[in-house]
Known about the structure:
alpha+beta; PH-domain like; four-stranded mixed beta sheet; 5 helices; elongated
Amino acid sequence: MASLSKEVQEAVILDQDQFVWETVSFQKYERSKAWYFALTVITMLLVAYSLVSSNFLFAFIIVLTVILLLLLGSREPRPILVQVGQDGLVWDGILHLYEDIEQFAIVYNPPHTKTLYIDFVSGVKPRLSISLEDVDPVELRGFLSQFVAEDGDLRSEPFSDIVGRLLKF
Length: 169
């Protein structure tokens, strides 16, 4: 991002008011007892296999992954303010200028998907996935296309999002 003083950046953030909505930081899925039972059985089978095959590193990785999955799953999503305006997009108080955004895509397949995807020029930043809530996707697409190229290839939800939703991650 271009180097802006804190005061200028705050002024630019306040000015991004073309589209403003509140969403959550991530989608939290309700997990049933059956989900936890299945996770336990799969974990035990994988750990048993890794011990039988003397692959202790794999056993460690499986246990560590399950612990991280359970810890991350216990977090609650927090409200996030999203603003889109003439200069860029603000996600949770962080300004992303249009010059830092490579492309965007809006995937609209109700009732499961109504999401804005943002890809950054920097290969280090991951794709930003923003739920559109009650924002009109057609209006937002028209507005964003004035400043950023649209990813014409992304017409449906990325595979990782589909798997995450189905497995309740």
